Amino acid sequence: MIARLNALRARHGILQAKIDAEGSRPSPDTIRVKILKKMRLKLRDQIALYERLVVGSRRQISS
Asked: How do residues 11-48 score in pLDDT, each as one tens digit?
């Protein structure tokens, strides 16, 4: 589960870099930026879910 969480975080970083690169262009493609941001938000939601699962499993182990 930790490996999946790290992979999601890496993909989130890659998407952020693509958003930044597109935004720094002289005339950014606003549709592409919008799509990338939606993808990034979905990843953020998945990351939050996995983080809750990891914290929950750690609590069960320590109990």
From this structure: 999 999 999 999 999 999 999 999 999 999 999 999 99
Give the C-alpha distances (Å, rounded to integers) separating 16 from 7, 12, 13, 42, 45.
14, 6, 5, 13, 15
Helices (H), the chain: 2-23, 30-62
Distance, CA of 47 to CA of 32 (rounded, Å): 22
The burial class, CB within 10 Å (0-12 / 13-18 / 19+), for 48 is: exposed
